[in-house]
Structures are given as C-alpha cells and as structure tokens.
Amino acid sequence: GQAKSSEKSEDLLAMVKKLQKAEGSLEPQIEDLINRINELQQDPAKKKASEELGEALALWEALHRELDSLNGEKVHLEEVLSKKQETLRILQLHCHKKESEVQSFSLLVIQLLTAQNKYLSIILRSQVGCQRTAGGPDGPAQGPLGISYAGAAIGPRDRCPGEQQGAAAYRGDAGAGEAGGGGAAAALAAGGSRHPTSERWAPPEPPGGHSRRVRVGRRSGR
Where are stretches of biased composition, namely Gly residues (predicted)? Predict the structure, then answer.
C-alpha cells in the first residue's frame, strides 16, 4: 500500500511541476480566448448595425429616386403653369379689348341718342315757335293764298315741317299772278278792303252742270 501511495504522490508532484511550467504559456492563451469571446459577443451587434446601415442606405436611395421624380414633376408643373399664365394674359388682353369696344359702342349710342333727342327738341321748339308766330293755338294757321304765317315769318331754312308745300304753292301762285298782270301786289296798290285772292278751277261738275271758280281768301277785319 505504501508503494501505491508513494506513486500517487510522485504523480501529483509531476503534475504540479507541469502546471508550473505551463503557467507561463497559459497567459497568452487566456488573453486570446478573452479576445475571441469579446469578438463573439460583438459580432451580433456589428451584424445588426450593418443590417440597419444597409436598410438606411436602401431607404436613402429610394428617397433620392422619389426626389428626382418630384423634381421632374415640378418642372412639368412649372411648364404647365407658364402656359396657363400666358393663356390668362391673352384672355385678359382680349377682355380689355372687348370692354374698350363695348365702352366705345355705348358712348356712340349715347351720342346718337343725345343727338336724336336734341334734334327732336329742336323740332318741338320749332313747332311751338311756329304756333306762336301764327298767333297762338287759337289764331289762324294760314293767311291769304293758303300761306302759313309761320312759313312767311321765318326763313326758308327754318320753316316748320309740312310748311314747304304751302311755300311752294305760294311761289307758284305768285308767279302765275305776275305773268297774268294781276298779282297780289297790284291788288294791294289799287287799294281796297279785301285781300288779294287766288282763283283756282274747281273739279268739273257732272254732265249738265257748269264749271265755276272758287275764291280762296279771307276778308280783312274792319
């Protein structure tokens, strides 16, 4: 039994010596193991970080592509806006032109209506003046020989409407009287209480009758 125990003791001593000899070479191995453990612990974080970095890069590329698309759409919209603004400018010029034409036309219509009203007022004043010249509404409208007092009082250019026929008849009667030697002036020079008269032939009578002359005129008041 003693031999076995001595052998075990020798074996333990040999192992201690080996451990003492190997202690110097274990320290580098231990450090290497620690470094490897640290690397193994950091690998998942690096992997996750690299994955997140890849996702961020992919997102950045997608955003960059979307930005390029938006820039292209912006350029297109700017072109459309420029065309719309040009069309709006042309329409505004057209509207201003039409407004100017409408204003000019309205001014022309107003001028025409003003001239028409002025012309009508002149005619009305002339008619009122003719009535006053003829002696008022109750006075005689015509004198001897069928001549209007208004036509005889005013000039030929200012005669009232409808007086030209009476003036023409007066000129015709006066010419006929001078040709026959028996005008109104001769009758007035001879003196008399009656106004000169103009004689005209009346329409022919039915068969069996006779033609007669009709004296046109008025007796002057005494």
Answer: 174-184
